[in-house]
Amino acid sequence: MNAIPGAWDWLTTSANWQGESGVWHRLGEHLYFSGVTLAVACLLALPLALWLGHIGKGGALAVNVSNVGRAVPTLAVLVLLTLTPLGEHGDLPTLIALVLFAVPPLLTNAYIGMREVDRSVVEAARGMGMSGGQVFRRVELPLAYPLVMTGLRSAAVQVVATATLAAMAGEGGLGRIITAGFNLQNTPQVVAGAFLVAALALLVEGVLVVAGRVCDPSPAARLGAGGLGRGRGAS
Amino acid sequence: MSTRRNCLVENDWICGEYVRTRSQELIDATAQHIGITAASVALGVLVAFPLALLARRRRAVAGAVLGLTTVLYTIPSLAMFSLLLPLFGLSAALVVTGLVLYSLTILVRNILAGLRAVPDEAVEAARGMGYGPVRLLWEVELPLALPALLAGVRIATVSTVALTTVGAIVGHGGLGTLILDGLDSTFKAQVLTASVLCVLLAVAADLLLLGAQRLLTPWTRARRPGSDRIRARAEKVAEPA
After folding, report:
1. Do the Cβ atoms of A73 and B169 come within 8 Å?
2. Chain segment A13-25, per-residue pLDDT in tens
3. Which fold, A3-234?
4. Cα–Cα nearest to B189, from B6, B4, B19
5. Transmembrane stretches, by residue range (chain B) (predicted)?
């Protein structure tokens, strides 16, 4: 049970933070992988989900993609991609796997957020003479915002977790500290690495919760329609 | 043609010879995978049920339990297993404990939602008929909460099948161990076969539980299918992936 003090010693040893396999470099890799892939996943998934939600089609696709994403093991996809010819292109297999696993939560939540907008509100907006684009920008998007943010949080947490697993497929990132610890049979290093990864995941989640509140476009809308209240409660 | 002999030598992705010659290894890994998943979900339900009952009693407990399980769910799987290493060493118990902690998030939420959705009239009627709290729970509330509970068990089982693979880091990952070994030896057939088996396992478990759900709660089928689908969607939203 001397793993906790051991992990503390590991974390407070400055040599472990420097160099190619030090914490700072691994954290940099982790943030680079996560940031790039989350941005790409958003660019792919959000326009598609919001458009499908706006026209009210493709619900089966948007919902089932999450079920499929849950059933496919991340580790298997990472290893499979690494063994394909893509594996010769450095970080590419990891980046592709990260995007693949970030898309489902974004797609599903944004789509459901759009579909759960109270139909009578949309009808009223149309009755006031709003065009399709105006309804989308001024009514549907602000009301779907909470669920879009839930999807973004889920995707971000998923990306941080998957980037950790990439270390098992031989890639960089903070997970490498853990796998190196296992190879060296150095339990304090394993625990220290795990602590860093967990802290990063919780920090990302926390930052996105705060960012979501700060950027909420419809503070007044929350007091309004009952339909929206339900949507928020469920998320 | 000696294609059959060659697929192992040429390291093809699909190789019947591999499946034939290593069938025992595949069966053992699949059995370990099923064992770890089943133990984790079963223990998860046993832990989640009392937690949901406690959470239903007091709002403060509900906030604490839901908050804590959400935090646990946010921790990446590799980190979760690694944090448990000093407690359990390289053992299957470590993997099962980690997976139980993950399953709690979904199970507690769904059981709580199921219990809260029990109509007040049903509870009042049972009380009026002289049901005590235990009999009320087992004979009225639990059966009515069963569809939500089983929906949670299905989601938890499918994600547990996938997460079990990460147990390979401590040598107890079922099919995941074959996947990781296949990476080290760049053995494509082993990686692909184990991956496909893993997905098939998740699908099979999902269908099996769906069948169980239909058998155990025949009254839910009487309703319009449309309303069920809407509820299923609402449950998915409630799940904090």
Report:
1. no
2. 888 898 888 899 9
3. MetI-like fold (1.10.3720)
4. B19
5. 34-54, 61-81, 87-108, 144-171, 191-212
